[in-house]
Amino acid sequence: MVLALTVAREDQGLARVGAMTCEVTAAPAQDPALDGPLEAAARAVQSGAGLDTGPARSLYRAIGLDPTRTRPSSEALLRRVLRGEALGRINTLVDLCNWCSLEVQLPYGLYDLDRVRPPVEVRRGRPGEEYAGIRKDVVHLAGRLVVADADGPFGNPTSDSARTMVTIEARRILVVVFGPATMATAAMGRVLDMTTARLAEFARGRETWRWVS
After folding, report:
1. Using CA atoms, how far apart are residues 197 and 21, in angstroms rounded to an integer?
2. What is the pLDDT of residue 163?
3. Residue 141 in 3-state DSSP?
4. Deepest of 74, 142, 182, 187, by most Cβ within 10 A of its Cβ?
5. CB distance 159 to 45 below 8 Å
6. Residues 145-155: what's their mean pLDDT?
7. Residues near 107 by Cβ (< 8 Å), separated by ≥ 6?
8. How many domains does the chain have?
9. Which CATH number does the domain housing residue 108 bear?
10. CA distance 14 to 7
């Protein structure tokens, strides 16, 4: 599937955005094949592996958010692991993206493509825009960087919407990675390469489309 995805003209230059679609097979929570990799990733962080939160924080500052008050989802994962908590287990696809996000310290968005109505645009949230979040009542979006389709916003670098959340029934997914504008296109490409490889290994994923802003 070739997805129509753009960055709003007035918001170009704020971020480096990478996106891909993939056909997958999702397994239920606690997929044992991921036990070892996720535990190893957590141990590496807890043993002092240096992970740079600077790029995600610079992305937030560029859009006018204080990253110490509204944390990128990648840093929230990191802080959880540093407290000695395990990476939460949801399902294969969510767990894989959390693993990738933790290691590269960039926010990931993961969406059920069959719940998305193209065209898709990355832009700033407009006054009054909000959605029901995953495990949250309402996520307010005014001024934030969002991913929106024909029905309105469904994702942002802090918390995604319940409308497009990925469950074990998902068979086509959209992955969006948010980086700072200073991030090289090739570097974002390597992040997507890693994500695709892990989806192929653990979810029989087949990448069908890719785009980097």
Report:
1. 13
2. 97
3. coil
4. 74
5. no
6. 97
7. 56, 59, 72, 73, 74, 101, 157, 158, 177, 178
8. 1
9. 3.50.40.10
10. 10
